[in-house]
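My current task is to audit a protein record that another person submitted. My question to you is simply how this chain folds and whether the tokens agree. This is what I was given:
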Amino acid sequence: MHSTANAGASAAVTPAPVYGVAIVGTGGIANAHAEALSAFPDQVRLVAGVDLDADRAKEFAERWAVGRTASSLQDALAGGDVDTVVICTPPASHGPLAIEALEAGVNVVIEKPPTLSLKQMRELAEAEERSTGTVSCIFQHRFGPGAEQLRRLHGDGSLGRPLVGVCNTLWFRDQPYFDVPWRGKWDVEGGGPTMGHGIHQFDLLLDLWGRWTDVTAYAGKLARRTATEDVSCAIVRFESGAVATITNSLVSPRESSYLRLDYERATVELEHLYGYTGDDWRFTPAPGADDLEWSSVEGERSSHRSQYEAWVRARTEGTPPPVGLADALVTMELVAAIYQSAITKQSVSREEIQQGGAFEERMDGFAEPWNEETGA
């Protein structure tokens, strides 16, 4: 015999909220977001796909079972069912679209880079302050298997002090990649591999090692026709006293994403390409540190899905979403400092980059150092 009291209690359970998501920009990277969000059908519903290209939006909606299409964010928001806007457009529109969503009281997830400049980052933060919505920035390598274990070992002092780091993003893009109209333009893409490619890897470095203090950098255009750099190299010092080299390249035929962190008591390495698993880590204790152990790690590859899992959990628990603007600002400040150091041929401190100036407004400080027309 069933208890009517239990049945009544079950009926009174409030269902978990379902977050309506509009994806703005339905090109290549939007598919990674749609695939990741589709892994959470009980918490997320794709309600709108927004694109100026109606045919592309329609194809995207059919592929991912998106409720409807729209030609503008304003039209998508008019439906009243959008809780979160995911921005997957070219970088120049990230900031303006995010502010538009925040002004409508809607949450925002932004593909990297979150904005084109530090000035836009501060404007976006001000918009978030005025809004009931929140901002989360896509830096998915923070969420791969092994990263949390390393944070714990770093945080509890098991590894000793951080000493020397190597952070390489050595990728290859041919000339047709750069010939896409919005690529390689300071006012549209915001920069080259420092801004749009290596940023993932050194964001993970900063997440693990904390605040940076100063940087000395070189950047140049070595092999591609583009207005930005195709290679940059930097030496970065951290508040802990540790130093690291960061190389960002789009002219390297054997592609690799590599992170090496030398601590007093161990070396921790991670090598992959566009996303890592637990098998991609290597742990080497220093002589006499045999008590240290690195556990085998399972879990999702570092990906949009791994970050969205953390995002869904935060929304459910009512906590701030992962990688908010304050977190992303530390990384964006390093991007700006690398460019400023390379272009001015001087070391740049974090304090200096925070004081404003031309490099706060645009990553090249309006210098256009590698403009094809000037032959620079």
